[in-house]
Amino acid sequence: HSLRNIDELCASIVRSHRETSQYRLEELQALTWKVFSREEIQAYQSKTVDEMWQHCAVRLTDAVQYVVEFAKHIPGFRMLSQNDQIALLKTGSMEVVLVRMSRFFNTENNTVFFDGKFAGTEVFKSLACGDLISAVFDFAHGMCALKLTEQQLALFSALVLINADRPSLEDRGRVQRVQRSVELGLNHILHRDNQDSLMHKLYQRMAVLRSLCVLHMEKLRWFSQRYPLTAHSLFPPLYKELFA
Ligand SMILES: CCS(=O)(=O)c1ccc(CC(=O)Nc2nc(-c3ccccc3)c(C(=O)c3ccccc3CC(C)C)s2)cc1
Predict the structure, then answer these.
(1) Residue bearing the CA closest to ligand 1, atom 10
(2) Is 21 left (phi over 0), alpha (psi -120 to 50) or beta?
(3) Which residues, listed in sequence order, are joined to residue 112 by a DSSP beta bridge?
(4) What class has domain 1-243?
(5) Rounded to two decimals, what is the model's pTM?
(6) Ligand 1, atom 17: closest residue by C-alpha
(7) 207: which residues sit within 8 A by CB, 6+ positions away?
(8) Which residues neighbour 17 within 8 Å (Cβ) at sequence distance 6 or greater?
(9) Are the C-beta atoms of residues 123 and 36 closer than 8 Å to each other?
(10) What sign does the dihedral 110-129-63-54 (CA atoms) show?
């Protein structure tokens, strides 16, 4: 890998991240003061469990669509077989959504961007999965503490996605080669920013992400057993394809 290749790799991943982010950082930083009123919070809390799950699943699926676009522009991702691309997205897309969402987390009042405003954990009460919600908020706090730049976040997101340890990969070797080049890119960016120490913290974040997504799948299984109609007919197809 000549330095030129690594620079080009980083540039294309950063460009793809920028072009597939639903919201720009400055856009949402201007919105952090917009929180939900008592009446709006009441309205969310009086939704039934399946209404709120469906409401969130639609937004989550929207965010996942952008991550699929991001993946398609990562050099080497399109060279992988269709099955391997799906396998990586099946397990990685939710993780990248969580990494991206943590950019729009207001640590001052512990709120996350949701439905156009910033929501505290109480907004999600009717989901009946408080442990998942608090784990997501804790993860977002941890990510904010690292104060990643958009470029570092772009390379980290690509590394979260291109993971050769994912289950049911056909050509693990080829995924390893793409993963290795993305790792070199992230190392290069962190070294250039004089933040080599961030690398091991980012690997710790990846371990937390994996446990978060296991929790998400467990809750989804619990939900679809309890509300089979909603899960099978009202959830967005992509959500079912990737998470069910
Ligand atoms: C991701 C791209 S982005 O531009 O950063 C972006 C783009 C769009 C938005 C707006 C948005 O859709 N926010 C959502 N927030 C939450 C949420 C919810 C509970 C706690 C914390 C955040 C959503 C979820 O549905 C969610 C997310 C993680 C785990 C669990 C769930 C609940 C599901 C499984 C029923 S959707 C925010 C940020």
Answers:
(1) 114
(2) beta
(3) 105, 119
(4) mainly alpha
(5) 0.94
(6) 114
(7) none
(8) 70, 150, 153, 154, 157, 158
(9) yes
(10) negative
